[in-house]
């Protein structure tokens, strides 16, 4: 397969300032006429032909300047057209069958409606085009079709004309005045209803907002609309970014490969990130909707107004936009809890990626299939890298840097280097060494040691970096990073009042040393506060320090982190050599302290009641026995549940009094209620099953009901089947809730879980054509050690069979399952061999898409 290299970038030989598209719409045969004004690019080497990229489409007619073109030919999927002149009008006609498009890339049908997905390279499945992000055009789109079948016709920009035609047909013309790359083109046609609202920008522009859904779903759009209006106001206040069209449309579709898409003025969303009502969506769903609606809206500047020069620069828009959505969500809710959640995601998803065969820098050097690079590294580590710039610069200077970036590059296709330069010039940072974050893969390891001289009161902190991976052909080099620390003086704090001055240190060499004076006693160090750098930080093992921080650190992240370290050590030790009563006692004491601590709210308390995710435990233990780790994790939950039973029951009772609302107090109550239930269920399944049943039956919201079902799904009781059946019946008409039902069963710690997954896959309402359903069942299975790492290798086999079955239908979604098998290097030898066998069987398959092939080959690597 062809590998694309970053170093091979050349500017486009031809520009396309204007595009007129006409769609004659029908479910199985849509005719597309593309009229392109093309112009030679004076900044590029002269080429005698224009290369119009295609993917699985056929040109029925090709015209140049109004006459039938001759002399063009196909090279693979691409159309090569000789052009002697400097300017031309090219017209190409293609015919599409959206109903047969199961890949959900390009133009496809979903539940009777028609829609597009063009990022990254879907436009070339609609029309032949220089489908690359550095070719920017203004689009005018005319759609016509049956008024009964497609009453709503939407595209980017503003609707400039619409009306009735003969034979029950109608048309609409949309014009987008902002030049954009083809990946931001969008079209939607179907029977849809809108939740309408409006927003007035700070300069007084009234923007009509609409969220379009299938009839019957309108009631579920209120939170998304509220989130959108909050996002629009926040981007003005915090980043000085104002919306730039008269309308902003969002459409929700049920069949979608990712979360959402930021098409200019016409965002298309997975229904999952739009629809929410208390009875059907959890608090986590509400948060995700706010975050994704914000994310897509923020792309209007970081992605659309300033786009990417090429796909190697993906983190330019994605890393920056993730940081923007993280800051937005933090501002809308709890800063502390949001930071903890973001770091948990980074650790659980990105750290394993960065230590495995699919590791890549946030700006990759090469790819075979770009869809495989929409990764936690590009998105989440990319956000961390920009967050570090913000930490080093401070908020005000960072804003100056981002203002300069937007001013310099508005209307352009930019690079990561452009962003860094703007930050240097605008924020006044020297980022010479910092650029390595863009070049090197791998999570840096930093070890910290402290020396205290009691005669002088001096404290010396020494940080040493150990580097494990690098970009292509490079020797690993140290990273530059901000390190926030605080030293707690044990002697001068009143009990319960531990405060320390925070210091921002910059680590810029393999070894860095810092001295602090005035400590009669050795202080307690709190380091990497707020997770100021995305690293693994080793601090010489000191249980009393960790226990102190787990109860008293005034940095919420570090308090959480200290407890996570204690719990991780305990689970790993239990899996290797059994439990130790003294260690357990220390842990249950901390839990008991946390449950009673009135300095924190319930949202934070819920974080402190959360055990490390299994993927983090596997990553830390490598080579890991995932089943032993899972068993040890449950045993620790049981120990906590037993030791703190009275307090946990009291929490469960106290929080049952809360009325449902979305405010922090009510959400916090639901969070700790569920965590209390999980811990109690691990300790005494039968008793907790009765508690769960009551919670389930009394629930007036999905957080409570789902929490109860999760708790009971891991218990061997007849109530389990009763409640699962009730849930299926109660929500049979709501696909998003039925997705939860699939995931809960596939993720349960249950001896027959693999049989259950097999049965679920045979149900009538399971379909490989719906990515949400496939992910619900098989991502949950792949994340469940009891299922996926079952000793016979049946879980690996099941996943490999899924990948082979799904690949011809939806290669992008199929490829997303390969990394689970690619983790074989981190797993103990017997299972590791079985995982590799499954990968080898995939590699030997006679048909593999480019998407799956790249992931399989690299995973075997
Ligand atoms: N920028 C969007 C990426 C996306 C995408 C990529 C590949 C295939 C399908 C896709 N759907 C959306 C999403 C985002 O980051 O906002
Ligand atoms: Zn994005």
Automatic annotation (TrEMBL):
Entry-linked InterPro entries: Aminopeptidase_N-like_N, Aminopeptidase_N-like_N_sf, PepN_Ig-like_sf, Peptidase_M1, Peptidase_M1_dom, Peptidase_M1_pepN, Peptidase_M1_pepN_C, Peptidase_M1_pepN_C_sf
Domain of life of the organism encoding this protein: Bacteria
Enzyme class at the top of the EC tree: hydrolase
Coiled coil: none
Span of domain Aminopeptidase N-like N-terminal: 96-184
UniProt EC number: 3.4.11.2
Molecular-function GO term, any one: alanyl aminopeptidase activity
Cofactor(s), by name: Zn(2+)
Keyword Coiled coil: no
Catalysed reaction, written as an equation: Release of an N-terminal amino acid, Xaa-|-Yaa- from a peptide, amide or arylamide. Xaa is preferably Ala, but may be most amino acids including Pro (slow action). When a terminal hydrophobic residue is followed by a prolyl residue, the two may be released as an intact Xaa-Pro dipeptide
Domain Peptidase M1 alanyl aminopeptidase Ig-like fold: 442-538
PANTHER family listed in its UniProt record: PUROMYCIN-SENSITIVE AMINOPEPTIDASE (PTHR46322:SF1)
NCBIfam families in the record: pepN_proteo (TIGR02414)
Protein name: Aminopeptidase N
Source organism of the structure: Croceicoccus esteveae
Organism phylogeny: Bacteria, Pseudomonadati, Pseudomonadota, Alphaproteobacteria, Sphingomonadales
């Amino acid at each position: 397969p062809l590998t694309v290299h970053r170093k091979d970038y050349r500017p486009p030989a031809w520009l396309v300032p204007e595009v007129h598209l006409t769609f004659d719409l029908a479910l199985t045969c849509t005719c597309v006429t593309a009229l392109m004004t093309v112009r030679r690019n004076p900044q590029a080497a002269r080429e005698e032909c224009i290369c119009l990229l295609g993917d699985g489409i056929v040109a029925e007619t090709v015209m140049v300047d109004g006459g039938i073109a001759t002399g063009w030919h196909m090279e693979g999927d691409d159309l090569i057209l000789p052009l002697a002149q400097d300017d031309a009008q090219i017209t190409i006609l293609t015919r599409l069958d959206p109903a047969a498009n199961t890949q959900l890339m390009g133009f496809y049908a979903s539940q009777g409606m028609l829609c597009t997905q063009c990022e990254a390279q879907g436009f070339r499945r609609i029309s032949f085009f220089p489908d690359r992000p550095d070719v920017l055009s203004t689009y005018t789109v005319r759609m016509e079709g049956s008024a009964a079948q497609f009453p709503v016709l939407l595209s980017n920009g503003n609707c400039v004309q619409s009306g009735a035609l003969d034979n029950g047909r109608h048309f609409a013309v949309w014009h987008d005045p902002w030049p954009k790359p083809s990946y931001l083109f969008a079209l939607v046609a179907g029977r849809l209803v809108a939740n309408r609202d409006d927003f007035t920008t700070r300069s007084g522009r009234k923007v009509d907002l609409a969220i379009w859904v299938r009839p019957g779903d309108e009631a579920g759009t209120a939170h998304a609309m509220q989130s959108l209006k909050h996002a629009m106001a926040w981007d003005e206040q915090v980043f000085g970014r104002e919306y730039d069209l008269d309308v902003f449309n969002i459409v929700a579709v049920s069949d979608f490969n990712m979360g959402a898409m930021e098409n200019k003025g016409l965002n298309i969303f997975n229904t999952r990130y739009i629809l929410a009502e208390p009875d059907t969506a959890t608090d986590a769903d509400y948060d995700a909707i706010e975050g994704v609606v914000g994310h897509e809206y923020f792309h209007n500047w970081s992605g659309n107004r300033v786009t990417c020069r090429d796909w190697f620069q993906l983190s330019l828009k994605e890393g920056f936009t993730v940081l923007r959505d993280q800051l937005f969500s933090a501002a809308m809710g709890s800063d502390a809890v949001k930071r903890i959640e973001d770091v948990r995601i980074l650790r659980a998803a990105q750290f394993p990626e960065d230590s495995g065969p699919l590791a890549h820098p946030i700006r990759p050097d090469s790819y075979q299939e770009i869809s495989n690079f929409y990764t936690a590294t590009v998105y989440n580590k990319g956000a961390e890298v920009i967050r570090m710039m913000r930490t080093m610069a401070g908020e005000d200077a960072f804003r100056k840097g981002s203002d300069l970036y937007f001013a310099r590059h508005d209307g352009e296709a930019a690079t990561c280097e452009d962003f860094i330069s703007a930050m240097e010039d605008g924020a006044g940072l020297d980022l010479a060494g910092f650029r390595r974050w863009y070049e090197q893969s791998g999570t840096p390891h930093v070890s910290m040691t402290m020396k205290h001289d009691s005669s002088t009161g001096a404290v010396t902190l020494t940080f040493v970096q150990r580097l494990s991976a690098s970009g292509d052909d490079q020797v690993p080099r140290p990273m530059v990073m901000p390190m926030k620390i605080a030293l707690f003086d044990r002697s001068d704090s009143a009990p319960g009042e531990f405060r320390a001055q925070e210091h921002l240190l910059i680590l810029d060499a393999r070894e860095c040393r810092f001295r602090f004076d005035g400590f009669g006693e050795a202080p307690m160090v709190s380091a990497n506060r707020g997770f100021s750098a995305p690293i693994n930080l080793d601090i010489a093992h000191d249980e009393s320090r960790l226990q102190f921080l787990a109860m008293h650190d005034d940095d919420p992240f570090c308090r959480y982190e200290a407890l996570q370290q204690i719990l991780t050590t305990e689970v790993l030790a239990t899996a290797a050599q059994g439990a130790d009563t003294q260690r357990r006692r220390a842990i249950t004491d901390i839990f008991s302290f946390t449950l009673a601590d009135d300095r924190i709210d319930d949202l934070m308390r819920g974080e402190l009641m959360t055990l490390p995710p299994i993927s983090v435990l596997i990553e830390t233990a490598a080579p890991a026995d995932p089943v032993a780790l899972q068993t040890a994790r449950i045993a620790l939950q049981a120990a906590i549940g037993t030791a703190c039973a009275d307090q946990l029951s009291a929490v469960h009772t106290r929080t049952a009094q809360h009325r449902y609302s979305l405010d922090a107090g009510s959400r916090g109550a639901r969070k700790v209620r569920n965590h209390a239930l999980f811990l109690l269920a691990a300790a005494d399944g039968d008793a907790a099953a009765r508690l769960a049943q009551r919670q389930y039956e009394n629930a007036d919201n999905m957080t409570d009901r789902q929490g109860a079902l999760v708790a009971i799904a891991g218990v061997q009781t007849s109530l389990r089947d009763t409640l699962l059946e009730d849930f299926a019946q109660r929500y049979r008409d709501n696909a998003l809730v039925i997705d939860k039902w699939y995931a809960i069963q596939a993720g349960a710690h249950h001896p027959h879980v693999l049989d259950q997954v097999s049965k679920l896959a045979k149900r009538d309402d399971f379909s490989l054509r719906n990515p949400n359903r496939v992910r619900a069942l098989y991502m949950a299975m792949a994340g469940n050690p009891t299922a996926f790492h079952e000793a016979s290798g049946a879980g690996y086999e099941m996943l490999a069979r899924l990948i082979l079955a799904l690949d011809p239908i939806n290669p992008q979604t199929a490829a997303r399952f390969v990394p689970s098998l690619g983790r074989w290097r981190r797993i103990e030898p017997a299972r590791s061999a079985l995982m590799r066998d499954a990968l080898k069987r995939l590699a030997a398959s006679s048909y593999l898409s480019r998407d799956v092939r790249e992931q399989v080959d690299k995973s075997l690597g």
